[in-house]
Amino acid sequence: MKQPNTEAITHLRNRIHIIIEGTDTRLGKLFDIVLLIAILTSVGVVMLDSVLFVRLQYGTIFFYAEWFFTILFTLEYLLRLFSAPNRFRYVFSFFGVVDLLSILPSYLSLIFGGVQYLIVIRILRLLRVFRVLKLKAYMQQAGFLASALRTSQQKITVFFLSLVLLVTIYGSIVYVVEGPENGFTSIPISIYWAVVTLTTVGYGDISPKTPLGQAIATMVMITGYAVIAVPTGIFTSELTRNMRPQLNPVTCPNCGKFGHAVGAEFCDRCGHALHV
Amino acid sequence: MKQPNTEAITHLRNRIHIIIEGTDTRLGKLFDIVLLIAILTSVGVVMLDSVLFVRLQYGTIFFYAEWFFTILFTLEYLLRLFSAPNRFRYVFSFFGVVDLLSILPSYLSLIFGGVQYLIVIRILRLLRVFRVLKLKAYMQQAGFLASALRTSQQKITVFFLSLVLLVTIYGSIVYVVEGPENGFTSIPISIYWAVVTLTTVGYGDISPKTPLGQAIATMVMITGYAVIAVPTGIFTSELTRNMRPQLNPVTCPNCGKFGHAVGAEFCDRCGHALHV
Amino acid sequence: MKQPNTEAITHLRNRIHIIIEGTDTRLGKLFDIVLLIAILTSVGVVMLDSVLFVRLQYGTIFFYAEWFFTILFTLEYLLRLFSAPNRFRYVFSFFGVVDLLSILPSYLSLIFGGVQYLIVIRILRLLRVFRVLKLKAYMQQAGFLASALRTSQQKITVFFLSLVLLVTIYGSIVYVVEGPENGFTSIPISIYWAVVTLTTVGYGDISPKTPLGQAIATMVMITGYAVIAVPTGIFTSELTRNMRPQLNPVTCPNCGKFGHAVGAEFCDRCGHALHV
Amino acid sequence: MKQPNTEAITHLRNRIHIIIEGTDTRLGKLFDIVLLIAILTSVGVVMLDSVLFVRLQYGTIFFYAEWFFTILFTLEYLLRLFSAPNRFRYVFSFFGVVDLLSILPSYLSLIFGGVQYLIVIRILRLLRVFRVLKLKAYMQQAGFLASALRTSQQKITVFFLSLVLLVTIYGSIVYVVEGPENGFTSIPISIYWAVVTLTTVGYGDISPKTPLGQAIATMVMITGYAVIAVPTGIFTSELTRNMRPQLNPVTCPNCGKFGHAVGAEFCDRCGHALHV
């Protein structure tokens, strides 16, 4: 996909790429800071625009501001697309998709009214700009958390599948017991109620009225109350394990095995003395 | 219980058993996949059927679909019963009971209307079909969680008995303090309120009105808020313990050091071979 | 306090004491089982009696049943008092107080109506009867949990004092911001709301209406959501520590120090060889 | 800033400083106890004053009591200011700010009515007085908790930033889906709803009505239910790590073993004295 005609274009693409993606050059830093402000301002504008009495007063300003930011981000998107070393990969990367979703709702709002509020999704773009702010230590910690989540992902999947089964069955039983006359108008609504109860949210928009329904609700609540221990336990034990003091970073001079128990004098694979 | 008359029947039973219970043969796999789809579809039909405005339109289709699946699962149940090596054990096994409960509500609905929705319990049958989907790693993790739950089962029982006592006493006190005029119409209802509050669900359908009642409610809430730490602590410490890397109970024949890292070939204190 | 007049009375006291407190004799076991049934039945009667439409029908039966049990438990209390080796200590022991509170409400109800429902406190007496049911293993586990709670008691006190300060300040701020016209009629009520919100119960009987009030509520909720980590962390780490593999139960033959690190060859206090 | 004119003033400042800040002298202890009572009484007065029917009866007494305490605390503030070794540092210290905020609302209430209730912030001053009550062990535990919070502060910041992004996006989506006609009148309100739901508070003042909105709500709830595991896991693993018994970093002069139990005098491998 590389443009073969001129070297000038390749040079331009590289320069833009360094400015947009890099943080080392002065222009790159400036670009990131401007972007940070633009994102926050545009999200703020959208939020204020959704408040009726503010819109009534400043509606036109907001309208122009929103289109100003949309065009700005569209230009930026095109520049990123133009300068990306691999365009296909960029478009389908996490940030590529977010960049597109950040401008699409404005254009779609020309067809479907109200959709423009979805551009707050551009707040996710902050994740990219965070690197300007010397947040390296934080990113490391985030990676730490993410790694613990990843290792426990299978256990968490099992846990959620069990929840889905549980909530479906509880919901159906309560639907039969309480019935539409008590607000449990269908099985999906009853499952929604079961989720509201199990997660201990408890809106109270739907709540059981019959003694039997309340007895079942009691069971759902206690299940939810106790079952929270499971994801917590999974995640905590994973984090605790990661934090456990590692092996000594010693390499066996004979067989090359790396990492030995604290206090080990001999390699436990080949029997060679570790500290000669 | 083995049929003595013909070998043909024994042979047939074995073949059916392999298809129904096994996953290695092509027919067995196909059977599991068809079953998976049938379960999901039939549960979906029941759910949609419970939504009034959908039922009004597609009610007759749903009616026939439900009976189609019921007869299908009845046939399957009879086949399982026929091919089971030990029929008595199958009928009273977990899956035997679930299989029966999956078809019974349809037949009962001929007598008691509305009960047919309980057939969503057949979603539990998915647990059996999951094995098709190469979920071995997940099943292992599930076993891991289940084992941690089993070891801490005594502690959890003690915890729940304490909760039951607590909730009964709190409920009765609030009943006396608030009384029927504030919605606490009986002790069972007040206990229901105490559960709603202690588990931090908080529907708000019943809530204390008098200052004294609110003071007691505050205590119930704080109890519930703090006490969640107990099941979480029990489960987490159990999981953490299970995850701790065990030492092999091997004694070094030279220096006598006991306990070596899993996989160690040589003593890490004196360098002597461990397994001579 | 020992009665000096006859040996017969001392003998009788001992016999009654063995029957009432012991579980080894046949009569002692029988006594415990009868007591267990009596407690459960009497609590059940009180609960049913509080349900209006049941009382309307069986009110008189319940009335006589309640007095029957009250007189029964009064006799039992007198017997315990009579046979206690140290009466003063019994009366002020945990179970002595519970025994008294289990009968008092009935007599008080002659003066203040409605108080009789408080006799459900006699459900606490079950704790004593549990020993019949071979619940030794469970009691051990309960002791385990109680010990972890006791060691972390100081940390938990600090945590609760912080909560009290937090809730008082949050409540007062919201009271000033929202005011009586939005349901926050006084500071105590606002503190009650802060507890309802912080513990994530959220009845919804009082909820902020102004934007500023909702912003503060957001902070209260997030505080409550995050702060639950503190008691959980305290309790879990205490339990985990208790479960950690203990020292080797070896006594130094020289200095007598008991308990040495796993794998220790020499006493780390006197330097003497441990395994001679 | 030291007053150069007389030694008498310096002497007076020192004496006042010892009484106010110290707890060793009899006068210092007395001062702390009087302060403790004054704080609690004044907070109690403010709370009662906010309850309408109590104010109607004792309003004038409360009015004078509040001004009495305000003037008392103002004098105390001036004394602290006068006796502080470094006035600038005192004014901007945590307690300096709290001391000022404890009296300011009363004076401001002359201009803006209702603000005087904010003086309950003086309850924070209790933290300073706690030292009288021999709460050293508790303070140590508090420091322990605070240290665990500080070490995990980066992870917790990452966690909260993720929550803010999540809640903003969820809120906006629900705003578009449900719209003002279902109570989601603006994006800020919808974000408020998302916080109420994610933290499992669930007032029920705003709740989704459309099936799509309820489906999204289900996702928010399950997110909130599972995500609580993260701060809990972070804090617990930090506390657990802190509680792990540390080894002393001592090397045996004879066999070279590194790392010995706290308090060990002799190497537990070779028996040689550790500290020669």
From TrEMBL, chains A, B, C, D:
InterPro entries: Ion_trans_dom, VG_K_chnl, Volt_channel_dom_sf. Pfam families: Ion_trans. Keywords: Ion channel, Ion transport, Membrane, Potassium, Potassium channel, Potassium transport, Transmembrane, Transmembrane helix, Transport, Voltage-gated channel. The chain crosses the membrane at residues 33-54, 61-79, 91-124, 156-177, 215-235. Residues 29-239 form the Ion transport domain. It is a multi-pass membrane protein. It is found in: Membrane. It comes from the Bacteria. PANTHER family: POTASSIUM VOLTAGE-GATED CHANNEL PROTEIN SHAB, VOLTAGE-GATED POTASSIUM CHANNEL. This is Ion transporter. The lineage of its organism: Bacteria, Pseudomonadati, Pseudomonadota, Gammaproteobacteria, Moraxellales.
